[in-house]
């Protein structure tokens, strides 16, 4: 047996020893949440939507919490969550405009069986620390595929789908991957309607376009303008957002896109189009430019795809990979189990 294999086994034994010692450090007065804040400053692999500053902006510093597992003094697993009370019911969930939350695990070493065993133990320790709840619902990152420990604890899983462009480095390849209809719409917007994409328009322009899109569907946005402004201010402070608006030759805003990103992936968070000008191809024109812009800041593009058929068919035309991801839920409360309309109301908050 070579030295690396011995070290790998020793490392995994060390992990297993420390898993049973969570929170046992004598005299430790630092809360898991404060430790997690410091950890987010050091650990680049924490996804954007799980970072402390994002959650602060979304629900306030007191509106979220986190459970962690430590190896010695180092966090090796974490799961932030939002806890709300609705009509006396305790709900553990995630904020609006936060498409992904759920567990983060440190990269594990060793044989597949050893890694899976450790992963299961880490998840169980996260579950054990969750606060009491009447309803739990979180949407996980597409790379987090093992939810079996949650199944063993009575949770359920629903599969959703998004589209992801896994490599943004080759713009010619991305263009070739577009559906022919999407390419025609982009060229029509450029050549026939002479649209331009602006980077300097205020957030309120996009918010108005976004409301028009919801109004066309007979809906209201599931978030307030002030909520979006808080997130935007936090993203601007850290240079983690781009806002693009397609305008006609007279400067009239036709369509807009709002992008956020971390070191690995960009996420299409908000979009909006004036329905009067859908025939111009402004939405495809603006989204294509946003994809090109994303290539300058990160590696992948997640369309945060919808399960609505018409939206899915539109996003499919941009050539992304069809990727499943999971919503994990549990409703111990018999009352809530019978009130699905109430749960839908909670999910929109």
Automatic annotation (TrEMBL):
Keywords of this entry: Plasmid, Transferase
GO molecular function, one term: transferase activity
The BioF2-like acetyltransferase domain, residue ranges: 181-296
Gene3D superfamilies, per database record: 3.40.630.30
Transmembrane spans: none
InterPro entries: Acyl_CoA_acyltransferase (IPR016181), BioF2-like_GNAT_dom (IPR038740), PG_Glycine_Bridge_Synth (IPR050644)
Entry superkingdom: Bacteria
Pfam families: Acetyltransf_6
PANTHER family: LIPID II:GLYCINE GLYCYLTRANSFERASE
The protein's name: GNAT family N-acetyltransferase
Lineage, uppermost ranks: Bacteria, Pseudomonadati, Pseudomonadota, Betaproteobacteria, Burkholderiales
């Amino acid at each position: 047996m070579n030295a690396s294999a011995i070290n790998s086994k020793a490392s995994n034994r060390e992990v297993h020893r420390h898993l049973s010692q969570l929170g046992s450090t004598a005299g430790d007065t630092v809360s898991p949440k404060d430790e997690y804040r410091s950890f987010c400053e050091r650990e680049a692999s924490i996804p954007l939507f799980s970072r402390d500053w994002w959650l602060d902006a979304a629900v306030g510093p007191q509106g979220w919490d986190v459970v962690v597992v430590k190896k010695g003094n180092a966090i090796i697993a974490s799961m932030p969550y939002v806890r709300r009370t609705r009509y006396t019911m305790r709900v553990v969930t995630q904020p609006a405009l936060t498409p992904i939350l759920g567990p983060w695990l440190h990269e594990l070493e060793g044989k597949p069986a050893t890694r899976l065993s450790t992963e299961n133990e880490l998840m169980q320790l996260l579950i054990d620390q969750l606060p009491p709840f009447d309803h739990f619902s979180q949407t996980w990152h597409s790379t987090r595929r093992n939810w079996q420990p949650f199944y063993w604890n009575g949770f359920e899983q629903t599969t959703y789908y998004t589209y992801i462009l896994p490599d943004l480095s080759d713009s010619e390849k991305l263009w070739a991957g577009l559906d022919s209809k999407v390419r025609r719409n982009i060229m029509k917007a450029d050549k026939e309607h002479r649209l331009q994409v602006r980077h300097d328009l205020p957030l309120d322009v996009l918010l108005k376009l976004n409301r028009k899109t919801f109004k066309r569907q007979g809906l209201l946005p599931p978030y307030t303008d002030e909520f979006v402004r808080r997130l935007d201010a936090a993203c601007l402070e850290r240079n983690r957002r781009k806002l693009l608006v397609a305008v006609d030759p007279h400067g009239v805003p036709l369509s807009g896109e709002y992008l956020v990103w971390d070191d690995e992936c960009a996420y299409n968070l908000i979009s909006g189009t004036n329905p009067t000008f859908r025939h111009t191809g402004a939405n495809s024109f603006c989204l294509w430019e946003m994809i090109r812009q994303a290539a300058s800041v990160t590696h992948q593009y997640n369309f945060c795809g919808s399960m609505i058929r018409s939206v899915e068919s539109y996003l499919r035309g941009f050539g992304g990979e069809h990727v499943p991801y999971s919503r994990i839920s549990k409703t111990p409360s018999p009352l809530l189990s019978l009130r699905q309309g109430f749960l839908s109301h909670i999910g929109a908050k």
